[in-house]
Design a protein that fits this description.
With about 130 residues, the protein is an alpha/beta fold. It is built from seven helices and four strands, in the order ααβαβααβαβα. It has one domain: Oxidized Rhodanese, domain 1, CATH 3.40.250.10. Helices cover about 45% and strands about 15% of the residues.
Amino acid sequence: MKALLTLVSALVLAGTAFAGEYPDISVAELKKAIADKQVTVLDVNGTAGFQKGHIPGAIDFKGSKGDIASKLPSDKSALVVAYCGGPTCGAYAAGAKAAKELGYTNVKHLSAGISGWMQAGEATEK
């Protein structure tokens, strides 16, 4: 029984640690951060998706991948937000991971993605 409790505890902790690796940011919070010029946004939908429409000011992660370091702010504590298509899309993780590996400490995920951004009535740019 003790071994089972230890195993369950380990699994819960592992799941919690993974889930919290990139905290979520809401559409409203991201909109405010953009208005306040307090965020760098990474669109991880691929260049074709980026060209169809993206959050204003976002960086095309795939198109900039070889040079992403030069596109990010010099302040490693600055807010960086990665997004992809929507809640079921996991592509955002590539952008978030790249920022984290470059030393950024305030990396978040817009889990609503571009679909949630548009459903909220927010503007996109091409």
